[in-house]
Amino acid sequence: MATTDPGTKSVPLSITEDEAAVYDRQIRLWGLEAQQRMRNATILMVRLKGVATEAIKNIVLAGIGKLIVVDSDDVAEQDLGAGFFFRDEDVGKKRVDAAKARIESLNPLVAVETISDPSVLEDNGFETLLAGVDMVCVTDVDRTTLIRLNDTCRRLGKPFYSGGTYGLLGYIFCDLLQHDYIAPDRSAQKDASKNVKNTAAYVALRTALQHRWTGMTRRQTKEVNPAIPFSVLALWEYQATHSGALPDDPMAAQELEEIANKLIGEAGVNKQVLPNIPRELIETLATTAAHELSPVSAVVGGLLAQDILKALAAREPPIANFFTFDGNLGGGTVVRMGMP
Prior knowledge:
Blueprint: H1 17-22, H2 24-30, H3 32-39, E1 42-46, H4 50-62, E2 66-70, H5 79-82, H6 95-106, E3 111-115, H7 123-130, E4 135-139, H8 143-155, E5 160-166, E6 169-175, E7 178-184, E8 195-201, H9 205-208, H10 218-223, H11 227-240, H12 253-267, H13 279-288, H14 294-313, E9 322-326, E10 331-335
Parallel strand pairs: 1-2, 1-4, 2-3, 4-5
Antiparallel strand pairs: 5-6, 6-9, 7-8, 9-10
C-alpha cells in the first residue's frame, strides 16, 4: 500500500515553462492564475468505480497537483466494464494497486498516491487525511457514508463533491461551502468590465435532503424532471434499510415505489407534474440500479470532473447543487436543493 503524508501542505508552486507548454491550451482558456490553482490542488478521490475512473482521467489530464485515491476493495469481474484502468489479470488485486501506474501514465506531472486501508475514512483518520487535501470527491457510496464524510469536510472547511450511477441514472452533489467565482456580466455595457465576482452559499447534504418543493411553480418543477431526483433519493433510502445493498430483483419494485411516493409526498412536489413515481421507471431501477453501465459512468464522471475543475478555476458557476442524469432520455437537470 502506498500512503500519503497528511501533514501541512507545502508552499504553493509556480508553473514551470515545461508545464506551461503542456497546459498551453488550458491556460488560454482558463488563464494562468486558474491553471496555477489547479497545479497546486490536492484532490482526494474516494472509491474507484466507473464514475471515479472517468473523473480521474479528466482531472489528471487537466493538470492538478496531486491525486490521492482511497479504495480498500479488490478488482471484481464487473469492474472491467466501466473501470478502464483495470485488465483481466487485475481481478483479485486491490483496485488502487491495479490502477496506480495507469493513472500516473496519463500525466507524469501529477503526483498520484493510493491508500487501501479503509480506516483512513473513519473519524480521526479521515480528519488527519483531510489536513493535506484541498477538495474531496466521494463516489458510489451510500447516503449514510456521504452524510458522515460531508459533515466532516464541512467542519474542516473542505469543498465536497459526490457522484454515482444506478443503471441508467446518475447524480452529482456538491457542497462548496462559500464559493467565490468570476462569471461573465451579461448586463454590462459594451465598454464596461465583462466579468463580475459572485459568491454562492452551499449547504451540507443533510440540509439539502430536507428540501421542500412547495416554492416551485408547475413549470419549474416540470423542467427539472423530478422523477429522476426522487428515484435517486428512493435508492438511498432503500440502501439505508438493506445494509447498503442496491436492489437487483424485480420483486424490489414495490418497495422502491412506496419509498419514492412517500418522499414525493413529504417534499410537497406539485402533484400535477408528478402525482406518483412512474411504475416503468421503478421496475427498471429494481433490476438495473446495482449495475454500472459504461456510457452512463462516462457522462456522469465527465461532468463531475468538469465541475471540479470549474470550482478550482473559480471562473464559472459550478453545479448548485444536485444534478441528475437520465440515461433513458440522454439528458440531465440541476435542482437547487436547500440553497438560499
